[in-house]
Amino acid sequence: MNKVHSTTYTLLRKNGMLKVFGNPGSNELPFLKNFPADFEYILALHEGAVVGIADGHALVSQQPSLVNLHAASGTGNAMGALTNAWYSHSPLVITAGQQARSLMGVEAMLSNVDAAQLPKPLVKWSYEPSCSGDVPRAISQAIHMANQPAKGPVYVSIPHDDWDKEIDEDALLLAEREVTTAGSLSIEQLASLTQRINKATNPVLVLGPDVDAYQANDLAIMLAEKMASPVWVAPSAPRCPFPTRHALFRGALPASLAGIAQKLDGHDLIVVIGAPVFRYHQHAPGRYLPKNAELIHVTCDLQEAARAPMGNAYVADIAAMLKSVLPEIKQTMRPMPKGLPVPLPYPTTQHGPLAPEEVFDDLNELAPADAVYVKESTSTVTAFWQRVEMRHQGSYFFPASGGLGFGLPAAVGAQLATDRQVIAVIGDGSANYGITALWTAAQYKVPVVFIILKNGTYGALRWFSRLLEAETAPGLDVPGLDFCAIAKGYGVEAILTNTREEFRAALKKALDAQGPMLIEVPTTTIEP
Ligand code: TZD
Ligand code: CA
């Protein structure tokens, strides 16, 4: 007879899920025993880091990541990271060990009481199998739920005495299953969408993270060039869907009602693709749309479509939609707008901390053109988008819900999934929420370049405190952190750089290194 254990590993193998991202406890040991040689366990020291690493891996590999957490406490530690996975449509299959079935009712230590309830509302689906024979089927369901549009995290709680139970051989049918979705537009939808675009006199495109997730960046370029329309990146951008030095690129939209209406003023048609409408942040009241503008929304996420407060939505596969729309769009006779000016090199600071702009100019010059940036410094977003050219799909990742603690771990997971150089640009505030991922980078020799921008403060909150007239709020500074000492403590080589020359030399060294390296750079505080 087969066991639940071997049947589940067969299922995972057939789905290409050979890495387990986890932090173990007693409830998980029966799953991890006799760990098959073709699988790899990636240990992280805190569950926020576990999920961040798995998230980065899923975003870059485009495949579901398997996560294994310890019961309720491990799940609780991971919840903040789940906010990002939820909004970035990250296919995470999260499993958590449960007490033995006979001990759950008396709430023995480490019982996950009402386990399926715990991770809601940050998962697409959550479940505890009713018997051991249902465990592989539940994990199969979890994989397909996570990996179909809109992708996202799912959760399965598994009593630890289930793994050793025998199971019917028909459970192996699960390993042969495929679930696919089409998501193309109907002929009528295609006609209504393309007619509306073709008759617009001054359309604008707003592209979001799912253009990048569907690897539809080149299709988006073709569409933009046919329409000769400026391209904005949707607000609060967690990915980069369009080359940032293309003549049609206009930057990321501000994350406020008033700001968006102002930037899009004068357009009669706003076409939003692969983003929510919209991810607002700062409260600046205003109208949803500029005067006389109409909005069309194309998204892979029904919830995004349904909750939008304006516009007509099409729920579709982003790449399939663009492929079917493109031949129907007329090449416009409108002249191509001029590109944005490339910013002048930032002058080198002679005394005192460097400006973040200097760091970004050096990255732009010295890092590989196809580098993958994982960014989590909140006050430097605009400067980064202006100064670091991003050309290719999958070049940029930022916490999709704004939950800090994503960047440092996600960079490790991203680098485990790609040969492209991953560069983590992290604030001295943000770094602390996911700092233990440095240990995983060191132990697994993951050659991420970590750059810590140290301005001694929660820079973005300083800016917000002026916006909200709350400058007197306490708790906004983070002095006294020594990131080189911290990195060394976790086994990562680290360099403090005070001058431009030192930073450039350290960056070159880090880019050549075989393992991870951290560069700590004291910087000034700028505004997002
Ligand atoms: N805790 C968590 C988990 N997520 C958050 N977003 C915050 C707190 C609040 N927060 C922000 O929204 S931005 C920010 C905080 C604390 C400051 C981050 O500081 P930093 O970056 O040093 O990483 P900057 O460049 O100095 O803003
Ligand atoms: Ca800071």
TrEMBL record:
Keywords: Thiamine pyrophosphate. GO terms for molecular function: acetolactate synthase activity; flavin adenine dinucleotide binding; magnesium ion binding; thiamine pyrophosphate binding. InterPro entries: DHS-like_NAD/FAD-binding_dom, THDP-binding, Thiamin_PyroP_enz_cen_dom, Thiamin_PyroP_enz_TPP-bd_dom, TPP_enz, TPP_enzyme_TPP-bd. The keyword Amino-acid biosynthesis does not apply. This is Benzoylformate decarboxylase. GO terms for biological process: carboxylic acid metabolic process. Residues 191-323 form the Thiamine pyrophosphate enzyme central domain. It comes from Marinomonas primoryensis. Belongs to the TPP enzyme family. It comes from the Bacteria. SUPFAM superfamilies: DHS-like NAD/FAD-binding domain, Thiamin diphosphate-binding fold (THDP-binding). Residues 383-521 form the Thiamine pyrophosphate enzyme TPP-binding domain. It holds the Pfam family TPP_enzyme_C. Residues 9-116 form the Thiamine pyrophosphate enzyme N-terminal TPP-binding domain.
